[in-house]
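User: I'm new to structure prediction. If I give you an amino acid sequence, what do you actually give back? Let's try with this one:
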Amino acid sequence: MMNYRQRLSGLLLFLTVLGLVGSAAADVKLASIFSDSMVLQRDLPVPVWGWADPGESVTVALGEQTKSTKADDGGRWQVTLDALQANAEGQTLQVKGANQVDIQDVLIGEVWICSGQSNMEWPLRLAMNPDKEIAAADHPQIRLFNVPGHLTSPVPKDTCPGSWQVCQPETAKAFSAVGYFFGRRLQRELQVPIGLVGSNWGGTRIEPWTSPAGFHSVPELKAIADQVDAYTAETKVTGRSPSAIYHAMVHPLAPFAMRGAIWYQGESNGNEGKSYYHKKHALVNGWRRLFNPELAFYWVQLADFRKPNDDPAGGDGWAQLREAQRQALDIEHTGMAVITDIGEDNDIHPRNKQDVGWRLAQWALHQTYGKQDLVPSGPLFKGHKVEGDSIRLTFDHVGSGLMAGKKEGLEPTAEDKGGKLQRFAVAGEDRKWHWADATIDGETVVVKAEGVAKPVAVRYAYTMNPEGANLYNREGIPASPFRTDDW
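Assistant: Good question. You get back a string of structure tokens that encode the predicted 3D arrangement of the chain. For your 487 residues, that looks like this:
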């Protein structure tokens, strides 16, 4: 009798456990990106998605909107909220299925993903003036979501770790400094809530962050696309494998509505040129397919680094990579923050992240948010014309004029009234490069070099560390390095 009772008790316990498991399986769940204190994108349709039992009815409510659907055969469900207006007052996002989930303190504003390698991952606590900046990082209208850890997968993942946090000293100090300074300026000038999604990993190349669809969008990258297509769930991947980081740290965030992306990466691809140009196209194309067909995309051109090179031909180190970054501006609705004036020759991680975030925000405010009174960047090479023994250079984004400038620390750029333009080189038909005299003439720069009677090409700051390069617009933003040749 005792043995029978024990077996009956065990059977009842087993059935109870089964019931509990069944109940848990029926619970409606939301994707990783949804948590208390989050920000939803304003003025765009907003997907909300998650999982439940196949066929389970799910209702999502926010404010006056209510949307209903049923989970598909795989248990995934998704609704799309109509475009929302900015709202700095916390609301509740309510999701009902077999159970109910309430996401509290939801704000409506602007959402940006902040991604790349170590200079994007670099935390606020290691930026310039960290104690002062951390103490001032009390911004309840800025919310931070960080994908923790360094994750890879051979196939797309549905979930990733992370949760939203209100921006305050304790949460901001470990968040991306570039992302924080970018978001801080946007919040101050737009006066709407800002959501920043950090997904970054030091030392990584661009390929692991790029989606398979991105690789397929660029014919020159077919070999990489084929490599990724061959992955199975059992394929061993690392942080260097194409699409492997994307699968684990970006794909789980999709299709969350976002306005744009900021990107600081390239050091690990630093020996590349044209190939990086193609990869940048693939990255942007893939992410736009994922989040928003019109996703704004702003990147950081690599800073000056290592000892200066006095060879006027340049071309060493990251010179070609920077040129590829500049040429990739042919992608619509993109921009580039130039920072060859704020790097450190002995540190690949410049501590001045304040100016980096500010210059990225300058692009976003002008181009994404329509503040046409702002000049989005420093001078960008536009064209050149040979005039006898000289070459005249024209630029976009001259702003209120050109100047020789000097940048010191976090101070605004000052005009160097007695200074001469530096780091311009000229070559003739023999393709031998000579340092040139460069003179500002209205909105143009005229360059010439002694001994070069018939110049054909110009290079500016085209070297790993273009120390002394000092062409700015009067808004205090530096000109990008460039070359007119393709030798």
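You can read the tokens as a compact description of the fold. Here is one thing that stands out. Residues 32 and 384 are 51 Å apart (CA to CA).
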